[in-house]
Request: fold
Amino acid sequence: MKNIGIIRKIDELGRIVLPKELRKTLSINSGDDFQITIDNEKIILEKYSRLENYEDKILEIINCFSIFLNYDIFFIVNNKIINYNHEEISNVISNIILDRKLFYIDKIGKNIINDNLMKEGRIVIMPVVYNSDLLGSIIIISNDSIKNLINCSKIIDNLVKKILLSK
Reply:
């Protein structure tokens, strides 16, 4: 791991401010969950995802929908495309997800997910929000009607939430 030499003081409540440059580089957003562990004399902060333990089940669901409907479906957690080599998403897509609202474009066009991934069709971006926490997002791209894409994203969103409730 690269040592970037940032020094911060702990305030009277035990808090440390993470510099903006560090948060931007690591895609850390306000409200993100972190897991704190200790390794010898080191305190380790890692982004935590409640969905991480359920990735395989969620990917099975997404693959079924994708194959059956012939949709391009991507599952995003912590700005990474889980079913696409955990590659980072573009800043544009990230900002849309952070709005926590259903987003869609009803016109067939080129949709840039990141520098390596561009798909043509209509697009729906459905944030997965559970107990007011933004856990991830579902992106669906297809030439099918926008109504069908939105319905599919809602079904997948509900199935993901059922998986979380079954723990």
